[in-house]
Amino acid sequence: MKTFIGWAYLAALFAFIFAPIAASVVFSFNSDRFPTLPLGHFTTDWYARAFSRPEVWQAIGNSLIVAAATSAIASFIGFATAYTDFRYGFRFKPAYLALALLPPTLPLVILGLAMLAWLSQVGLSGTLTGIIIAHVVLATPFAMAICRLRLSQMDPSLESAAWNLGAGPWTAMRHVILPFCAPAIVSALCLTAAVSFDEFIVAWFVSGLNRTVPVLILEILQGNVDPQINAIGTVVFLTSMSLVIAAQFLIFRKRRHE
Amino acid sequence: MNEPLVQFRAVHKRFGTYVAVKSLDLDIQRGEFLALMGPSGCGKTTTLRMLAGLEAPTSGSITIGGKVMNEVPPHRRDTPLVWQSLALFPFLSVVENVEFGLRMRGVDARERRERAMMWLGRMDLKGFESRRIDQLSGGQRQRVALARSLVTEPEMLLLDEPLSALDAHLVIRMQGVLTRLQKELGITFVYVTHSQSEAFAMADRVVIMGHGAIEQIGRPREIFRGPKTRFVAEFVGRNNILGGTVKAGLMDSAQGPVSVPAPDGPAEIVVAADRVTVSRNRPAGTAIQASFLSEEFAGTGIICYFETAEGAEWKAQVSESQLAELQPESGQSFWLSWDPARAHVMTG
């Protein structure tokens, strides 16, 4: 009985979280113009229409470029930050860590405004480079947290053991630290890509004419309610979810190993 | 010819304000099995890490093979270390772990595989080469760690409490493996441990360290039977220590006069627990009175604990039959006696 209530509670919880997304997916295949019940017949028409629009492809291209660049840069900086924390003790370390983990705690509107002001100062407002810089700021703490978790599971003598066996500091990094952290780094790449691919508010502030997918969705929505949004939304959701699930899978797989 | 392999000269090591090692002078001979022993925080591990180049001495010099090594980074030394945690690489297979040192030295793939396989065979690990580290037992991991350190054929092997994580019966087996290996290879082993049974069972010479300095260096038996300082006497074995001033062969100890074969002046003597005889009635000769506290089974015999009227703890080793005969009960008074000639007079 108890387990039944537990399961029912879990099911209700998931229904609550996923119902709107599921509805969006369902209506993206529904022939009716407005999301009402009963449903009309099955159609992929909305997908065909949405993906025949050049600005959609343009936005997807922008999003992919930004996500790829953000994920590479954020993961690199995140790993380097985590390694510095792991390897060195220094005077203002707590401040260093707090600063490194700060960006996600800032209200996005503030961050977006600040980014817009700063990027227009340096002439990058409205460019993809600008969006990438803003997203790197936002995503790096996630990459750092993942790499830091992995490094905390490492036997601290592993690196010294590599030196002891004849590896210089950089060789030890390449042959010991990086292979040990590989699952975390791949996981960080996926997660930061997902953060960037999804991110709307900051992108909306700084993107200008180079719209990313979430920004484009809002623009279409402002015009009218169109099931094409459901179609685009479903694709975005699936992309982000796959990245997040891949990241989670890598984190949990490595735990099972040790 | 007989120049030592390693020389520590007036080596100091400070971490901030904490002095880990002070004015250390130590020679390590070629081909000897040297144990560095002491309680935790005595500086033994720091000494070993300085030898491997993982710490740099604050002052003084360390030479290996006649070359001053103070500033040489760890990867340019040939001082492989067997770590307390073993520090095997979890993302590499067994044979890849063993090959690591050769790979870092640029030995080509075929040769390093051959040499690694040779060492795996020597360590009884044939057939395990493609296993992951987490698929091995504790004893097998231990042998992989040894093979990984020895594959480059170093002149010296450093070991940092390598047996501390093993079960008691495996420790004895590994002690055999280590001593045999050291004899066969003829290389220097520097072995850090806090366990006197390990140090005394394996080492040619034992260095007892306390508070960052050397207390005594000697062969195991010398140290066991002839501790030089109170620190060593308390750390090694089950010893009773008695101090006082000697006058004409008699010491005025806190437990009354005892006969001591030492020249006049202040002295401390050590009476090993296995050289104390326990009796209910006062025996002839040197004896002190103490009340029984408790007993402890210690493999070879039973250690009885006593307390003198002055509050000093005394230990005596008795056999099972002796214990049955004495039937001691807590608080009962006994006489503890020994042959004065077999008491050790400390000189340190």
How do the strands and helices of this protein lay out in sequence?
The complex is a heterodimer of chains A (258) and B (348).
Chain A: H1 2-28, H2 45-50, H3 54-87, H4 93-100, H5 108-121, H6 128-152, H7 157-164, H8 169-198, H9 201-206, H10 213-223, H11 227-257
Helix pairs in contact in A: 1-11, 3-6, 3-8, 6-8, 7-8, 8-11, 10-11
Chain B: E1 6-15, E2 18-28, E3 33-37, H1 44-52, E4 59-64, E5 67-68, E6 81-82, H2 94-104, H3 109-122, H4 138-150, E7 156-160, H5 168-185, E8 188-193, H6 196-202, E9 205-210, E10 213-218, H7 220-225, H8 230-235, E11 239-247, E12 250-253, E13 256-259, E14 265-272, E15 277-279, E16 287-297, E17 302-308, E18 313-318, H9 320-326, E19 333-337, E20 344-346
Parallel strand pairs in B: 3-8, 3-9, 6-7, 7-8
Antiparallel strand pairs in B: 1-2, 1-4, 4-5, 9-10, 11-12, 11-14, 12-13, 14-20, 15-19, 16-17, 16-19, 17-18
List keywords for this structure.
heterodimer, A: 258 residues, mainly alpha, MetI-like fold, globular, B: 348 residues, alpha+beta, six-stranded mixed beta sheet, five-stranded antiparallel beta sheet, 9 helices, 20 strands, 26% helix
Overview of the molecule:
The complex is a heterodimer of chains A (258) and B (348). In chain A, helix 3 runs parallel beside helix 6 and helix 3 runs antiparallel to helix 8. Chain A has a single domain, classed as MetI-like (MetI-like fold), CATH 1.10.3720.10. The longest helix of chain A is centred in the first third of the chain and has 34 residues. Chain A has 258 residues and is an all-alpha fold. Chain B is an alpha+beta fold. In chain B, 26% of the residues lie in helices and 34% in strands. A 6-stranded mixed β-sheet of chain B has the order 6-7-8-3-9-10, sandwiched between helices. Chain B has a 5-stranded antiparallel β-sheet with strand order 13-12-11-14-20. Chain B has a 5-stranded antiparallel β-sheet with strand order 15-19-16-17-18. In chain B, a hairpin with a 2-residue loop joins strand 1 and strand 2. Chain B starts with 5 loop residues before the first strand and ends with a strand. Classes of the chains: A mainly alpha (258), B alpha+beta (348).
